[in-house]
Amino acid sequence: MNKSETKVLVALERVGGFASAQEIHRILQRGSQSIGLTTVYRALQSLLNDKIVDLLRKDDGEAIYRLCGETHHHHLVCKSCGATVEIEGGAIEKWAKNIATQHGYTDIGHMAEIFGLCSKCST
Amino acid sequence: MNKSETKVLVALERVGGFASAQEIHRILQRGSQSIGLTTVYRALQSLLNDKIVDLLRKDDGEAIYRLCGETHHHHLVCKSCGATVEIEGGAIEKWAKNIATQHGYTDIGHMAEIFGLCSKCST
DNA sequence: TCACAGAATGAAAATGATTGTCATTTTCAG
DNA sequence: CTGAAAATGACAATCATTTTCATTCTGTGA
User: Fold this and answer.
1) Chain A interface includes B111 (CB < 8 A)
2) Per-residue model confidence as pLDDT tens digits over A11-62
3) A75, A77, A105, A110: which to substitute to probe chain B, counting the most B Cβ within 10 Å?
4) pLDDT for res A70
5) Chain B residues touching A62 at Cβ < 8 A
6) Of A5, A44, B31, B113, which has the fewest CB atoms closer than 10 Å, so is most exposed?
7) Within chain B, which residues score under 70 in pLDDT?
8) Which of A101, A13, A86, A83 is nearest to B116 (CA)?
9) Which of B41, B114, B117 is best to mutate for the A interface (most A CBs within 10 A)?
10) Which domain CATH number covers A95?
């Protein structure tokens, strides 16, 4: 674990959720922890290898990262205004694990989002 | 449904699985169905809107498309080779509906994907 | 049939994330 | 201290995707 990897981890802790490489870079630039964008990418690769961070993809394909081991949750998003509620996914975790092992898959992850119209927008 | 959308559909039928926009373009170029790359992207957007094709992401973030069946289902995808199993989502449908109404959301949809390593790739 | 508005097309340029290059700096064991 | 190896970051390159814009098609009403 070298210096820049540590900086990236600190940034990820600060955001407390997902962040793209570019966001992490911006955050570090703002503070006194200036670090090159290239190095951010390299640090993230390395942290991925060591399974210290998780990689997901936004809808547009951009990679977003988060610390592993943070509690995993899902989102309920309003299609119209974007209001978001965080959701615990107990039921889904089990469902995903069952289905996957049932088909011989291992090293399982999953993604789930619910969308709809929030009470304000559904008038 | 215009001419280029049809061509893209035909190409997708031919591959019988996933294909990226660029692959579809290459396939059509080879045959006598020449069509511009831009148009392939536009046709895919349109087919996505009409829910005639499905969009997934490869590990590297590239978008891949395929024809989607009539029934609403979810996917169990191998992170390494892309092997896909279609899944019925009974449990999830209920979960999504419960959570959403619980928070006052209406007109509900959802998305769920499970990924892992298939038995072949997990060796 | 003709004229014309609007949609469709595609070549080329723009965009934006990610990766490669390479010269410079830091680290550290001997 | 000293040289080798690792780390760093500015910059250029790559690659999928989107935009732009000029051109071609298409259908409709006269």
Assistant:
1) yes
2) 999 887 789 999 999 999 888 778 999 999 999 999 999 889 988 888 788 9
3) A105
4) 60
5) 61
6) B31
7) 69-72, 80-82
8) A101
9) B114
10) 3.30.1490.190
* Total length of chain B: 123
Q: Rounded to a whole number, what is the distance in angstroms from the first to the last CA of chain B?
A: 45
Query: Which amino acid, one-letter code, is at B86?
Result: E
Question: At A71, is the pLDDT very low, low, confident or very high (cuts 50, 70, 90)?
Answer: low
CA atoms of B61 and B40, how far apart (whole Å) = 18
Q: Is B99 on the interface with A (CB under 8 A)?
A: yes
Q: Are residues B59 and B20 in the same domain?
A: yes
Say yes or no to pLDDT of A69 above 70: no
| Candidates A63, A100, A119; nearest CB to B61 | A63
Q: Are residues B78 and B59 in the same domain?
A: no
In whole angstroms, D17 C1' to B23 CA is 14
pLDDT value, residue B62: 92
Q: Are residues A49 and A83 in the same domain?
A: no
Count how many domains chain B has.
2
Q: Which of A52, A67, A82 is the last residue of a domain?
A: A67
Name the minimum distance, in Å, from the CA of A39 to any CA of chain B: 19
Whichever domain contains B32, its CATH number is: 1.10.10.10
Closest of A4, A17, A98 to residue A53, by C-alpha: A17
Domain boundaries, position A52: 3-67
Do residues A23 and A38 both lie within one domain? yes
**Tokens 């469902």, located at residue:** A95
Residue closest to sugar C1' of D16 by CA: B62
Q: Angle, nearest 10°, between helix axes B21-30 and B3-15?
A: 100
